[in-house]
Amino acid sequence: MKASSAMRRPRLLGLYAAFVFAFIYLPIVVLVLYSFNRDGVGGFPPGHFTLRWYTQLFADSSIWDSLLNSLMVAAASVALSLALGLLAALALDRTDFPGKTLFRRLVLLPLILPGIITGLSLLMFAVFAGVQLSLLTVFLGHATALVSVATTELFAGLQKLDRAQEEASLDLGATPWQTFWRITLPNLKLSLIAAGLLIFTLSMDEIAVTFFLIGRDNTLPLEIWARLRRGITPEINAISALILVVSVGLIVIWYHLRARSLGGRSQEFL
Amino acid sequence: MYSRAYKSLVSIPPIAWVGVLLLLPYALMFVHSLWAVREGVIVHQWNWENYKTLFTNSLYAKVLFRTMRIAASVTLCSILLGYPLAYYLAFHAGARKELLYQLVIVPLWVSYLVRGYAWKTILGSDGVLNGFLQYLHLTHEPVGFFLYSPFAVVLMLTHIYTPFVFLPIYAALEHIPRPLLEASQDLGAGSVQTFWRVILPLSMPGLLAGATFAFVLSLGDFLAPLLVGGPSGTMIANVVQSLFGAAFDWPLGAAISVGILVITISLLFLGELLEKRWAFK
Amino acid sequence: MSASPANPPQELPAGSAALLEARKVAKRFGAVEVLKEISLNIASGEFLTLLGESGSGKTTLLRLIAGFDEPSSGEIWMSGERLDLLPPYKRRVNTVFQNYALFPHLSARDNVAYGLRVKNVPANEISGRIGDALRMVKMQDFAGYRPSKLSGGQQQRIALARALVNRPQLLLLDEPLSALDANLRKQMQSELKSLQREIGVTFLFVTHDQEEAMALSDRIALLRDGALEQVASPREIYAHPSTAYTAEFIGQTNLLRGEIRGSMVRCGALRWPLEQADGPVIFSLRPEAIRICPDGGRQTSEAAFRATVRQQFYGGSSELLEVDCGSGQTLRVRIPTRGPLTGEHDFVFSFCDAIRVQE
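Output (structure tokens, whole complex):
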């Protein structure tokens, strides 16, 4: 863009962009601020600083139980989603079979389908199969919804993989199996980690699908949800703030990993 | 280059997975929609009643239209917020582009529930916004419609989906080769014209992708209404949810779900068609 | 091996045995025939270049020999055994890829060691062989670097070392120099040639650059639309092109079209005697075979013509003239530098420099 006209325009646009940023961050800032507020969640300005809500939070055993449940489900979801997602990505990238287009659309469908549909359809399936609702059904629900994320990310990673490298490996005497472990997987490392982190986060935060598949044990979001129905307390602010900190921590880690490995363009997220 | 065994190994497990955990459940859902409920129990009586109800009962039509309006508002607002932001980052952010991009991404990682809850606390009668307005003596009583209204739902969902709409638009804008813009100016078009004639058309696929995403997901959202919608902000997914809950009518709920599924798939196809027409290489 | 349009007569360099034999190898992709029943022998220890435009099938043939594709029909034999039935990792053939295909997550040393490690060569032997391979390409100081830290030329050497360390019977090079800039290219050409001479491995080199092919090869196999146009040494192919296509592809030439009548060749303004049957003819006449003959000093074995200089391109050591012989017949003439020329001049060329070619 010509320097002169570009100088005038950004002023207004820049202001607007700042406004959008503010809009995006406002609730988060308010949330964190008020988690330290003695007088609770409302009113303005926030009054007295206190850590009371955090201490109350740490003593809350059902929160910890639900956190543990969420972690287990999330870890299992990452494992299964990555495994199936890798196979699906390989299948999409390298094979051809009748119905491949349908397969591709179905695999990617849960990404855009409202969670309620995925959740309900799996609920009906669970009933049909006579399976009782529990963390297991929650896990299967998460994995089903999140395989799409793994497939998308890993497929993109495969596309970036230079086919010639695998040919070079075969040329140098490695069998296809050796080639997969020595060349294909290491080159997918970044995609695997990015997908893994994303799936983990999405699973930890998942509500819509979980809502319909939950049994007796709650996951963290559903535990929070249950409390919200009862009423608002700043304790919820506190846990929200903590979730925020952990989330940001994860992004920072991910960002560093990516910057370290390739030091190049890092504009590939979803 | 890949043997038969390799190809079978990689394609069979995912196909099996998709068949059992996606196709089969959708089929089950469709089957359920053709059944009925008699005296609190689901009976396998094949009929189209549920679909008839959907089309004739005005209650469902009303909620559906409200849902569509909300989804459309969310999509529009997200675009109005997300596009200029993406534009600014792509063309004017200079050295800080990368950092700002990450800053936009950060909220995506923050829990949906957390963000929804935050709005709840801000918008309520005792909430931060009202407190702020009263503090500034702009109002003397709490304003009611901030919370428990369609307005609140639109606000919350816009907040959720603006980054989602931003992402594909930004990617599309970044993909526009800068020499094209220089050529446009060289040929006499100013910034505004260049935007209309070059930038906007070339960013359409990204815009479309983001808009479809925001619209479809808003359409099927049931959590936002429960958090901040109140009775006047109920959406179609809430109806479904209650039919699977207290109002126990799985077949009817399944029918509505099938409807949502059909709408989603139709919009996806529409999006693809439009994208093919607008695709440039 | 019988000669046919797709398989011109080929002579192996004197005193050498065939290492690789392609027998009527054809390749189809769907309805498109990319290779049309090629038969080609490669002699042990020779530097053979597959030369052709893009789409000529040269890369396809290379990939068939490497093992990344299967022939639609025909056989490939190496050292007395069927090669095309083996998967790539069992062939004693290694490839230097066009964009090097170095493994980005491995250092240069580990890249070179790769082929040895997957075949479980003992570790002490590996380090010795890596050292030799790196020294051979003069990259011993860069062993610990990742490919992303190396320049194009350096990556190319590592790719070469990685392939050669496996002691292949045949080394395939897929346009390895095309990504390098002109100066580096010339340097690498020289190094490749001397390397091949030194280690004696058979090289099959693919390129579209005819100058490169001429400079490096013991023999050139010119491919056109999936068939072999001519297989011969660079000198032979330049001096005696068999077809018009070959004459124009390799170096520059003037294609003279005309006829023989009564033992005289008539091509436009050019006439000279030739004892051959009457009929239409095409001749290839190289620009440097024509010289200016100012004062009628022509030999009996030379033909003469008069033409007007239309364009003159200065080339440092020589000049290229475009001359008009009248009736629209234009020829190109290359002469040693002599300053600006205009107007009509007399030109001569030897009869035997006009090579008769097929269409």
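Residues 74 and 151 of chain B are 10 Å apart (CA to CA).
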